[in-house]
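thought: fold this chain, then report.
action: predict
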Amino acid sequence: MKKNLFWAAGIFLILLAGCKTTDTANSGYMASVEISGPRENEIRAMTAAIFLASGYEQTGDLIFEKKGSAWDTAAYGGWSGNAVWVRMRVHLAMLDDTRGVLGCDAYELLDRDQWTDAREQKFFFEKRSDCKKLLDEIKTKLDSPDAAAPTHKIP
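observation:
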């Protein structure tokens, strides 16, 4: 029995190690990309547009939230049964006028809709692929020659 458990744990670790994406900007965030060409306001506008199109609400400057899946609630919600929300904090560090690093960290947000203060806890790796996918989409849209930055107003 112990031998089977040992093998199962080993296989799980191998699969887990194989399920990572490369972070091209190596910025220290859960995921990041380096963007060249557009100015800061264009990057911010496209970031908001992509997150909003993906079902997120903008709750602050480059902070986006959406209700987590049933799996998120089951895995992270505890005994309360309250919905878990996912918060994405996007960070933009401009290296010069037309080059910047766009980073993203994901958090589970508990008790968001309660009268008490919501509790935020950073995901270790669970939402990394979601962050990376959104950042890659932003980079792709901004890199396309006919990309016009959307005219989204940042709250």
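thought: worth noting. The radius of gyration is 18 Å.
final: tokens above.
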